[in-house]
């Protein structure tokens, strides 16, 4: 797994450490380098225009000899997109992205779009946070061992056809989901094995594991793993 640490809401250090332990490569995007250092995680590479990393964190990156690629702020890609490009160029088959949501809704939404860029490249990718996991579904997806979890499904394509859900409180069979009709919010998994099927189009899935769905906001192992 390749781990991208972005510059959204600061992740819990224990959560970041747990994800880093599973990573083959850690790519920090700008301020994400500071999050890594604070958690005692050494990124393999830092990329971005360095406009949000603290001066102290940047000095530590330079002192530690961590490779970093600095871009001009006048660029056509976000820092997280630059990090994704590195992961794809280096042959990633599975990518987790943390610190990708927060009070900058535009960046949060852009990062969901980056999941689509990974999907088009044939790479499994997910945005992971202590309380939820965001991933895309364009064919079949199984969720095992998550009884009690809450799952929201929203169309990323204008129209998603052939949507079928099994193992959910509100199942579907060959349904259509359209932008502007968000009826897929807050479904609940009621089986140890749940399945999502899509015939045409792409869904955004937001999974809240049972602990988070019950009000606990620190989940170190959100599932499914990519």
UniProtKB/TrEMBL annotation:
Stretches assigned to the Thiamin pyrophosphokinase thiamin-binding domain: 142-204
Pfam family, any one: TPK_catalytic
GO MF terms, alphabetically ordered: ATP binding; kinase activity; thiamine binding; thiamine diphosphokinase activity
Keywords tagged on the record: ATP-binding, Kinase, Nucleotide-binding, Transferase
GO biological process terms held by the UniProt record: thiamine diphosphate biosynthetic process; thiamine metabolic process
InterPro entries: Thi_PPkinase (IPR006282), Thiamin_PyroPKinase_B1-bd (IPR007373), TPK (IPR053149), TPK_B1-bd_sf (IPR036371), TPK_catalytic (IPR007371), TPK_catalytic_sf (IPR036759)
SUPFAM superfamilies: Thiamin pyrophosphokinase, catalytic domain, Thiamin pyrophosphokinase, substrate-binding domain
Top EC group: transferase
NCBIfam families, sorted: thi_PPkinase
Record's protein name: Thiamine pyrophosphokinase
Organism: anaerobic digester metagenome
């Amino acid at each position: 797994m390749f781990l991208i640490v972005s510059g959204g809401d600061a992740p819990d250090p224990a959560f970041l450490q747990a994800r880093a332990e599973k990573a083959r490569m850690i790519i920090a995007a700008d301020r994400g380098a500071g999050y890594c250092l604070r958690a005692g995680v050494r990124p393999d590479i830092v990329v971005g225009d360095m406009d949000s990393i603290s001066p102290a964190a940047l000095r530590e990156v330079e002192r530690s000899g961590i490779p970093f690629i600095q871009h001009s702020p006048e660029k056509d890609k976000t820092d997280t997109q630059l990090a994704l490009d590195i992961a794809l160029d280096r042959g990633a088959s599975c990518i987790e992205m943390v610190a990708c949501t927060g009070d900058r809704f535009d960046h949060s939404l852009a990062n969901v779009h980056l999941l689509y860029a990974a999907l088009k490249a044939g790479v499994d990718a997910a945005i992971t946070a202590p309380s939820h996991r965001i991933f895309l579904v364009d064919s079949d997806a199984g969720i095992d061992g998550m009884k009690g979890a809450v799952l929201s499904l929203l169309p990323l394509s204008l129209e998603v056809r052939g949507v079928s859900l099994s193992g959910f409180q509100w199942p579907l069979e060959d349904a259509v989901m359209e932008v502007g009709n968000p009826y897929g919010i807050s479904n609940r998994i009621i089986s140890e094995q749940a399945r999502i099927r899509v015939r045409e189009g792409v869904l955004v899935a937001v999974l809240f594991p049972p602990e988070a769905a019950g009000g606990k906001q620190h989940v170190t192992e959100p599932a499914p793993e990519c």
